[in-house]
Amino acid sequence: MSSRRSYPSDLSDAEWALLEPLIPAPKPGGRPAKVPRREIVNAILYVLENGIKWRAMPHDLPHWSTVYHYFRKWQKEGIWEKAVQALARQDREREGRQASPSALVMDSQSGSCQELCVRVCVRGAYRS
Length: 128
Known about the structure:
By secondary structure, the protein is mostly helical. The protein starts with 12 loop residues before the first helix and ends with a helix. This is Insertion element IS402-like domain-containing protein.
């Protein structure tokens, strides 16, 4: 991790270990990534948890346009949805239940909090 001060929204090492395999790695053969994926995810979580505008991100986090680019790219690619599903399966298996639920209840706001749900799923899996 970088030398910047940590924020309460930052992922712990254990949380990052759960989420890292679900986040796309930089493409091989291209330019090396300037910003580590963990810092991008930490910045996304900072925005989501603090309810701020992208441009209002603290200057010790990666530039807002970089963070927003990856947030939208991964959203369009379904990365957040896949991460929520994978973490939920892991959590259910850890609790000794079937990986896929047999029923689902969804309200009108369930689909709108997908990215923040990644954080809840990671934290839920980590607390065991």
